């Protein structure tokens, strides 16, 4: 570009940045982090995180190669974006397609209500949740069901539960910051509330081991509630090593467990393989150990006091007598 044209472009880009106006750009290249866009002698970049939901690469497992492939599909496309960072000295621009759609997004958001149950279509599955399209035509908008909002129990593999194109019912949880948060689990009764009426501390029940970790076992109760058997609750004498746990327990098998803590509000369930007798023995051993420690400390303190007293007496005896001056 000629100098005059470049100055005109510079002023135009600066004005659009300051006024928050949109600009149409053509995607030149893609890398694993986003899209590369040139305007005149300015180098622009559109990060993946700033893409509109319709262009965001919803890839199973977050595979970087698959994400890169989806981004390359956008090369040559014209996108409406906003400049969110303008550096005239370095000739660098950062764009956001998401920000450019704020007004349109706000209009769509105004047409939906929090707490409303709607039917949607699964449009993408990622490690952290599923994307669901709700509404029709110009009112169509996409939301996210976070993995923590899929079910009341632990979910490890979303692709086993859903596939793109599935029709599902969701609850609109919130529309904060131009984002739609959805939930599937809140359309069902909270099983923790039901369990709170059914179980109490010290109850024994049958549960299925769903995961073995280096700190214990995850156990599913009533096919909906997940509890933890900590390593220290494996046996009476001392906790077993992870190698022994893997040999003794199998994922998918059921065993009897005892409830030692239960907080339905926090959705926490503590389980034990120990019997109540084992627990009592452990507590007794701890009490005896603590008592021994206290006695040992008391003896040490008493011995120290006696030693100090003897030294004081010895010092008094060896002190020279001061003669009176007449």
From TrEMBL:
<dbReference type="GO" id="GO:0003676">
    <property type="term" value="F:nucleic acid binding"/>
</dbReference>
<feature type="compositionally biased region" description="Basic and acidic residues">
    <location>
        <begin position="309"/>
        <end position="326"/>
    </location>
</feature>
<dbReference type="Pfam" id="PF00575">
    <property type="entry name" value="S1"/>
</dbReference>
<feature type="domain" description="S1 motif">
    <location>
        <begin position="20"/>
        <end position="98"/>
    </location>
</feature>
<dbReference type="InterPro" id="IPR012340">
    <property type="entry name" value="NA-bd_OB-fold"/>
</dbReference>
<feature type="region of interest" description="Disordered">
    <location>
        <begin position="291"/>
        <end position="326"/>
    </location>
</feature>
<feature type="domain" description="S1 motif">
    <location>
        <begin position="115"/>
        <end position="185"/>
    </location>
</feature>
<dbReference type="InterPro" id="IPR052757">
    <property type="entry name" value="Ribosomal_protein_S1"/>
</dbReference>
<feature type="domain" description="S1 motif">
    <location>
        <begin position="202"/>
        <end position="274"/>
    </location>
</feature>
<protein>
    <submittedName>
        <fullName>RNA binding S1 domain protein</fullName>
    </submittedName>
</protein>
<dbReference type="InterPro" id="IPR003029">
    <property type="entry name" value="S1_domain"/>
</dbReference>
<comment type="function">
    <text>Binds mRNA; thus facilitating recognition of the initiation point. It is needed to translate mRNA with a short Shine-Dalgarno (SD) purine-rich sequence.</text>
</comment>
